[in-house]
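Marked as duplicate of an earlier ticket. Keeping the data here for the record.
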Amino acid sequence: MFFTLSKLLFFFITPFFWCAALLLIGIIRRKNTSRWFWYAGIVFLIFTNPFIYRKAMLAYQEKPAPQSLAANPITTGILLTGFVGFDAAGNGYFGKSSDRFIQAANLYHTGKVKQLIISGGSGNFWKVEPPEAGFLKKELIKNGIPDSAILIENRSRNTYENAKYTHQLIDSLHLKGPFLLITSALHLPRAKKIFSKLGINCIPYPCDFKQYPTVNHFMNTIYPDVSYLKDWEYLIKEIVGSLAYQIMGKA
């Protein structure tokens, strides 16, 4: 039920929906129409401003992993999925956030982890897709990582289930922590709370940074960029999702 509601309600917390709703209210009411159009315009300008988005993202996303990690190798890394898409024939394609895959492979090849747990089934609400974990295992093997060093959990549909089923796998194999939790910097604040709540001792390893400190200039400070309307959706989703999990006692 939680999975279904989260997918359906997500649309209503997006800046696009807010702009559309304000415009629609202005059209329907026919009184003070310009006021509602102004409100929609203000929301649009706020959520297309690169400076505001960058500051908000830098404040929320996980900071880079400390360099000291190299001196303290960890046995097992946990790679969270959510960056693979499938066509109608079931062929997988890497999408956004594929830096998670790159960093997981690098961690193994540089000896920082000895094995990887890939956690993730299919989180697609609208159609049935193959589990991501199975596809990624094949790709990691192609990348030179032996089958014996890869474990998969392919039932989870969201972050809570990632933690739940990974915990079951860890217990069944009697694996010892701490574990390296590999996922996007934006996703980590929520993910590490959920994994910790279930008693999994994890060290966060952020990757796929959405923003990073940069020199301010006109184009990345003042000039509106409509692509940020979509980028804000991911940030708002993480913030609201984290609060929802805490209220439900899952984080």
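See parent ticket for discussion. DSSP finds nine helices and seven strands in the chain.
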